[in-house]
Amino acid sequence: MKFNRLIYIALVLSGVSVSSCKKDFLQRDPQTSITKPLFFLTTTDLETYTNGFYENLPTPLNDMNSDNIATHNVTVETDQLVRGQISQDTYGGWDYDDWKKLRAINYMLSNLDQVAGTQPEIDHYVGIARFFRAMFYFDKIKKYSNVPWYTTALEDKDPDLYKGQDPRAFVADKVLEDLQFAADHIKASEKNTRITKWAALTLLSRFALHEGTFRKYHSELNLTNDYTRFLNIAVDASSKVMTEGGFIIFGNGSADYASLFNATSLSGNKEIILWKDFDPALNVSHGASLVLNFNFALSRSLADSYLNTDGTPFTDFTKPFAHLFDNRDPRMMATINYPGWAQFGGAALNRINPTMGGYGQIKFYPSRGDLNQGYEKQYNDIPVFRLAEVLLINAEAKAELGTINQLDLDKTVNLLRKRVGMPNMNMGVALDPALVTLYPNATANNLSVLLEIRRERRVELACEGLRYDDLMRWKAGKLIQNSQQGIYVPALGAYDVTGDGVVDIAILASVNDESPIANVPEPVKTALTKYYLKDAGGRDNTFYLSGGNSGFISFTRDREFPRTFIEPKYYYRPIPRQQILLNDKLKQVFGWDQ
Q: Strands of 488-489's sheet, edge to edge?
């Protein structure tokens, strides 16, 4: 019997149904002989079944799609978007593979009538299922705004199979209901690799902040009259985690900050609310080694966001790379390859890669060789939710509401700054013109505080997969159309980028002209890694300098194929035309039918 029950859960979670198939967005596979009475009989069954949902948890390792990335050599969605390559005829999704995760969740929630166990025990697993349903719909709202809300695993003759979208306002409230149920009923004492009450409250606060700020800044939704409700929910949920969860900001210094992302284990770390365990013994790995100069590099825009150690904004933009990290927020050295950084602490100092801008990401890169065993075989543990984000949610929501005070800053932002030895943020902080330029539509009673919280969020949570959503909810999508840059190069020639006093790379006009390094001693010249603006045939390489023979590293593709971000259209994605042909009740939003 146990073997049959395990077959049952595997089939349901993979999408196999008990009905005939139909080629629609909730298509189901052919009938099987597996029937409901084999499962959902005990709370152990519910635990086994909900364990299958955990594969849906994200493994955030980078900020791809956002302005934190300078350039990349892989296909990313926003790059296609701003270059006009996405339409209702080319965009995928909305098919069975897209919706089967929801069907698996709803199948369990629709089949609880035979479960034996106490109600609190049953509700614990119901809460976990509703947590994952909320996460599913959170992603759908971000993409499509209006989506059909389903609470059952639909069968072929169900009248709702071909219904249209429900309004965003309705679905968002349903997500709130799911997350509130999860927070009220999921146990608080589970291991932090499992969904706990605190994980549910964290997702609730994340969703409420997103929806509240999205409504505030996106007038096209006609929901600006109902954004403060969500921000107050974000404050309440985050406050509960802060005051009742027993979590604390971990460590003292940049090394402890860095260890949150490259450590062997996060077990017992009091900052981590939810984490994913990667272990070679279990053959469970990720691809964190790819973050360093393999597919992408970080942007000058991100690098310039890090404050000086005295708390003032960084403005010395033409500072040589070898000294760029001097007297800067220590989190910068925990995120970007700095002069003197060596892989796994080895003797060979890392040389930056100018063809990708020079700002290589080291956040999440494994700290030891045994954690890096080949292509996509990295085993450092990855945080999914951590207290730092919760603190920043609390601070930002209060700033948007206009209620934030110095005590709030001391309980949130200043705890993060204290960890790395940065000065406190004060309510009287000066308005930084650079932040006003980045976010010209931001509004708050104390605008300078709100903008500094946005800066703090950017640097503290850099590369954790949140920046793109932040730009979308702040209606700052125009930043994605900007051509991002890399390091500053004062002139063609050789440079020390490892901080050892010896030049180690050279940037030259072409392979036919090495005159800028003519005076470099021959042994040093032989050891140089050379990069050229043009190839032997005189053709442009992938990068150039913004001033010709000097300037910031820029990228040829952006110059030849400029980006355009169309508002409000590009804050959403199109439903594929084929799905609308199958169901004419589905409607495109915000111009995607053009």
A: 488-489, 551-555, 543-545
**Rounded distance, CA 181 to CA 197, Å?**
10
Which sign does the torsion angle of CA 442, 444, 448, 450 carry? Answer: negative
The secondary structure of residue 431, as a DSSP letter, is: P
Are 585 and 164 in contact by the 8 Å Cβ rule? The answer is yes
Confidence of residue 36 (pLDDT cuts 50, 70, 90): low
Tokens of 483: 């051509």
| Cα–Cα distance for residue pair 539/543, rounded to 1 Å | 11
Rounded-to-integer distance, Cα 458 and Cα 432, Å:
15
Judge whether 345 and 365 are in contact, CB under 8 Å: no
Residue found under tokens 């023979």: 549
Sequence-ordered alpha helix ranges (H) in 86-118: 96-109
pLDDT, tens only, 192-227 = 999 999 999 999 999 999 999 999 999 999 999 999
What angle is formed at CA 450 by the lines to CA 137 and CA 447, rounded to 5 degrees? 130
What's the token pair of residue 471? 């730009």
Banded pLDDT at 354 (limits 50, 70, 90): very high
β-strands 382-386, 272-276 pairing: antiparallel
Taking the C-alpha atoms of residue 10 and residue 115, their distance in angstroms, rounded to an integer, is 19
Residue 515 has pLDDT above 80, yes or no: yes
CA gap 71, 170 in Å, rounded: 38
CA–CA distance, 131 with 182 (Å, rounded to integer)? 6
The pLDDT value given to residue 19: 37
Task: Say which residue the tokens 């090394």 belong to.
Answer: 255
As a whole number of angstroms, the distance between CA 58 and CA 108 comes to 22
Contact 221, 373 (CB under 8 A): no
CA 343 to each of CA 350, 357, 368: distance values in angstroms, whole numbers, following the listed order: 7, 19, 8
Neighbours of 152 (CB within 10 A): 12
Rounded to a whole number, what is the largest CA-CA distance in the chain?
A: 83
Percent of the chain with pLDDT over 90: 85
**Cα(48)–Cα(158) distance, integer angstroms:** 28
How far is Cα of residue 31 from the mean position of the Cα atoms in its chain? 38
pLDDT in tens, 384-400: 999 999 999 999 999 99
Distance of alpha carbon 506 from alpha carbon 495, whole angstroms: 6
Q: What is the pLDDT, as a whole number, of residue 369?
A: 85
Distance from C-alpha of 287 to C-alpha of 285, rounded to nearest angstrom: 7
pLDDT at 138 over 90: yes
- pLDDT at 38 (0 to 100): 77
Spatial contact of 389 and 249, defined as CB atoms under 8 Å apart:
no
With contact defined as beta carbons under 8 Å apart, do 305 and 459 qualify? yes
- How far is residue 107 CA from its own chain's centroid? 29
Which residues 6+ apart lie within 8 Å of 387 measured at CB? 241, 242, 245, 247, 248, 249, 271, 272, 273
Over residues 267-287, mean pLDDT? 94
Q: What is the dihedral of CA 326, 329, 333, 339, to 10 degrees?
A: -10
In the structure encoding, which two tokens stand for residue 373, read together?
A: 């065993």
- In the block, residue with structure tokens 């402890």: 256
Confidence of residue 27 (pLDDT cuts 50, 70, 90): very low
Question: What's phi and psi for 573, nearest 5 deg?
Answer: -125, 155
Q: What pLDDT score was predicted for residue 5?
A: 53
